[in-house]
Amino acid sequence: xxxxxxxxxxxxxxxxxxxxxxxxxxxxxxxxxxxxxxxxxxxxxxxxxxxxxxxxxxxxxxxxxxxxxxxxxxxxxxxxxxxxxxxxxxxxxxxxxxxxxxxxxxxxxxxxxxxxxxxxxxxxxxxxxxxxxxxxxxxxxxxxxxxxxxxxxxxxxxxxxxxxxxxxxxxxxxxxxxxxxxxxxxxxxxxxxxxxxxxxxxxxxxxxxxxxxxxxxxxxxxxxxxxxxxxxxxxxxxxxxxxxxxxxxxxxxxxxxxxxxxxxxxxxxxxxxxxxxxxxxxxxxxxxxxxxxxxxxxxxxxxxxxxxxxxxxxxxxxxxxxxxxxxxxxxxxxxxxxxxxxxxxxxxxxxxxxxxxxxxxxxxxxxxxxxxxxxxxxxxxxxxxxxxxxxxxxxxxxxxxxxxxxxxxxxxxxxxxxxxxxxxxxxxxxxxxxxxxxxxxxxxxxxxxxxxxxxxxxxxxxxxxxxxxxxxxxxxxxxxxxxxxxxxxxxxxxxxxxxxxxxxxxxxxxxxxxxxxxxxxxxxxxxxxxxxxxxxxxxxxxxxxxxxxxxxxxxxxxxxxxxxxxxxxxxxxx
Length: 574
Fold this sequence. Notes:
By secondary structure, the chain is an alpha/beta fold. It is built from 18 helices and 17 strands. An eight-stranded mixed beta sheet has the order 3-4-5-2-6-7-1-8.
């Protein structure tokens, strides 16, 4: 099969041409982050033979399934080949001792379980925060999907290793390598407070040139949203005007290297439009909710609302739930076939999914889109990594489908199929399904409701479905606000600890982080759902995933709130 040509888009050219020591590439999906990591690895191999590049990841599973397959796809297109022990040809070996006769790094490496070795002696040493976070003295560090790492732990353990071979590549050698002891951080746009450290290096834009980078960038994103709408409406004149305006706004934020050698880059799918085409952008716009589209595709920076309905803090999230043992087995059994590792995407790869325990599902059926969350209780806190006496309620996965994603199937069937495929190897085929009351309404042209159709699909695939519905009518938003406040405060033993897999449930986190609370004329609190009605102003489905979480949480724990409110006064502002 012929290799595709290596085409460099404008954002990637900026990365290549602006020489710097410490680099931050905050790129959206489809912009080409994988190309940048591959480029950096290739350059390190060529410039620093017998050197060490650390690849810092949250877990080995993340490295094997996310970063390395894309990186080596790029290297393969440059001509790198895995070593063949029969023909004794090739350029690298994965997680094995290098073949006899190969050069080895200047820094002695005792074990190669987490090392990718190249024939000229350069080594990629995978550092994982869930395991071996202290490696040999290194010459450069790469951290891909940096929003998933613990920055404090990185500074304490990984960063100090970036100190090797000054006499070979650094200041003490005759011809120093400029990038020696540098760092590359790549990531999509951060969406929690804990991840904001990735954006702080951009401060030099305003400090050195008076450019308010994120204000200008978000204004560009808003213009691009108008551009897409003009395309959908076939308004050629407006599209042309907006296209030129996007180009003008992009020129206002031309990147540059700071005085201390830092490069901070923002990039979105529009930077890669020559490779992907406008049709790709339009398709993503149609199949994603607007909030996720603006964050994940256009790379918009979002700010947490001041008056949040869900009072989430960093402790409520965890990012590292890869089943490293299973994924390493996949790697070893496939001789580290990168495609096999890339496709290891079912529940067996999730450490926070116990295959012997039942799952819990909550859904939100809408006229334009439908949402599904997967929950499971465990006696383990994946945020603190500690065993707990009382169960922890974990939200471990999310599924989302817009109407007409698959014209041959209803959104109910699409969601059911996606869930069943992902959890096909789950041993305990039992789910507790928290029915959405609106899903019990009969739709025109159908004898069965959304809930009935969904349950039927799961049962056909061998699942036993236990149904639960909250008592009474739809609970007031004020009561749900109080319940969430109690749960998230973690100060009352009568309420559970709740944790969210912020890697799998990214849309849920974005939704909850951007849901504001309002006060009505009677002093009651309600969820600000105006974002569902004002598509031109705010994302049209900004609150739906939060509503999906409400269904399970209220049905399971709402009665506990009633016990408190009936016995004592509860201030809505506690």
